Amino acid sequence: MRRLLPFLLFGALAAVPLFADAFTLSLVARGMIFALAAVSLGFILGQGALVSFGHAAVMGIGAYAVGILMEEGGRDALVSFPVAMAAAGLFALATGAVSLKTRGVYFIMITLAFGQMAFFVAQSLSAYGGDDGLTLAARSTVAGQRWLKDPKIFHFTVLGLLVATVLTCHVLAASPFGRVLAAGKENERRLRALGVDPYPYRLLAFTIAGALAGLSGALYANLAEFVSPAYLSWHRSGELIVMVVAGGAGTVLGPVIGALGVVLVEEGLSRLTEHWRILFGPLLVLLVLSRGGLSALFGRRRDG
């Protein structure tokens, strides 16, 4: 069952446009976009025990890169998406170079501080909406064509990028690079005794995760056709951590299952009552206590 899970999961997502209406397509696309960000966070959290409370900031920077470029006339995704990834990756590289000098709760707090700095910078961008956010004129074009305007094409674009991200993180986790990260998490002192400094490996992993989160931000800006400073808030970073833990930290597919599950459960409960968080909280507690999240339902073997 465990080996079939990726095919069942992505096969089901590929089949959604066959029966879904426009609202359901948008909801599933939102879940897949958050899944992409959660996979990138799950990679550094699972491989390196790096609990970043500023991951939403890099996602938001990717979204703002698309919004600002579009405001200045740059509408093509072939340009704006790489720029979004580069901007988010550079922010992750700069902040990671400082944050990774610390460990544990200090790392959590310093990533939270950098994330809030980015949040307040976004609020101060009065030329691009400030507190009110920035409304995009339309979705990005691809080679001059408005393909992303079609909900089904947008759905398959997000799905393709999600699959590519999962494969990338899986390959990195199984490579010598990923094994050094895992070894540093298990016993950093022994790794240093072997002559390996884990710092550059962690910094590269942090930068890659930031760039991938920037890609998710670029997609989210296109889905909502709106960019807001709230995208960069620590609340959103907390939601991403919840998605990773709910799906199963330490696995590649866990964050995908967690993100889709959280988005769909949130939508379902919010239709039942406006106080849906009272019901959502105990569900999260049960998932955390299960020590493996939703992915544990399909077996305990690690897949990444």
3D architecture notes:
Keywords: Cell membrane, Membrane, Transmembrane, Transmembrane helix. It is a multi-pass membrane protein. This protein is 71% helix and 1% strand. The protein has helices at residues 5-19, 22-48, 55-71, 77-99, 104-123, 151-174, 176-186, 188-193, 198-224, 234-247, 254-272, 276-289; strands at 134-135, 226-227. Helix 10 crosses helix 11 (254-272) and helix 11 (254-272) packs antiparallel against helix 12 (276-289). The two termini are 16 Å apart. The mean pLDDT is 90.
Describe how the helices and strands are arranged.
Layout: H1 5-19, H2 22-48, H3 55-71, H4 77-99, H5 104-123, E1 134-135, H6 151-174, H7 176-186, H8 188-193, H9 198-224, E2 226-227, H10 234-247, H11 254-272, H12 276-289
Antiparallel strand pairs: 1-2
